[in-house]
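User: Hi! I'm working on a homework problem where we have to compare a predicted structure to a textbook description. Could you give me the structure for the chain below?
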Amino acid sequence: MTKHYGVIVVGAGSMGMAAGYYLADQGINTLMIDAFDPPHANGSHSGDTRLIRHACGEGFSYVPLALRAQELWDDLQKKTNERIFSNTGVVTFGPSESLFVQTAINGGHKYQLNVEALSADEINERWPGITVPPNQVGCYEPEAGILFSENCIRTFKRLALEKGAELKTNSPVMDIDIFENFVKVHTNTESFTSDKLIIAGGAWNKKILDDLGLKIQIQPSRQTIAWFDSDDILYKSDGFPGFFADISTGVYYGFPSIDGTGLKIGRYDNGDAIDPSYYNNEFGSYEKDKKDISNFLGEYMKQANGDINIGKTCMFTNTPDENFIIDTHPHHNHVAIAAGFSGHGYKFSSAVGEALSELVTLGETKQDISSFKVTRPSLQPENKNETYFKARGK
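Assistant: Happy to help. Predicted structure tokens:
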């Protein structure tokens, strides 16, 4: 006999695990299904840490979502002894004409956030480990910082299971049937039914949505991160912030040295389009894995440009406009979708999980997700923009 649930969540990674917890916390009979055993290295949450910024250079519409996410992360911290958030602050910098930097500063003013605009000299003086050229500017958010991404997922997982949710691991979803009032989900070994469905399959969302007849533009890409041997006097986490740099050669982000592990850095905009089931996940397989980030450190953070302590790969799933997809299926309002988080989504995953739980229980969410419609023109196949993806290295 097929077991029936109130909600099935396909993909128990960043967004899916959070959604599973918020559903279970309401007493809803919830099943989460994942192709692996989260947290794991086959998604977008691996690599220990993620930045959380509130004055989002990606656009004003992200600020309320970031603030709600921070409230939920702070609440999650109260429920565990694991580190969820570290208030290191985050500095963002780039040329004075950088739209990203100016949007972050202007968004801070619009929402009355604690954001300090800084000149290059002020950045260099405050953090001697950074050398910013005189034609650049930045801003600093002292209340921003670092999320310990794998700890976050472990905590959501533990709490969801304690609240009665079920989790099927190492169970890839093979097929989904959507009916008028319920859905049926088939794994490689079992089938389940539910009243509602959340699709949060990360890099596998493209295949899942294609199979459901929802042809939209989302593209997984291979990304790399590395921890460099660095001067802990300059770069340790009790004095050095997280950082985001939007410069002419690329977009970079990084983290202070935590517990002596070295400065961590990645490039945001230079990934290669991949099939998530078949890609080279070995760091160092391509010359640019090290070269791009080492070149950045050699110019901006010379005392952090040592040997690589460890390098890893992860995946982004990009939309053409780099905005998220948080919506219900256009033809099935009992199916919610979370996709296309384009490398800057993790910090929002607590709030996205809450929003998904509201979409399938209430039919709407208190969050403003109007910018994240699955039906927006930029996602549609007839507006395919191969030049954009090529230009962005995706």
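For your comparison, note the following. The CA atoms of residues 169 and 292 lie 36 Å apart. Confidence is low (pLDDT under 50) at residues 386-394. Good luck with the assignment!
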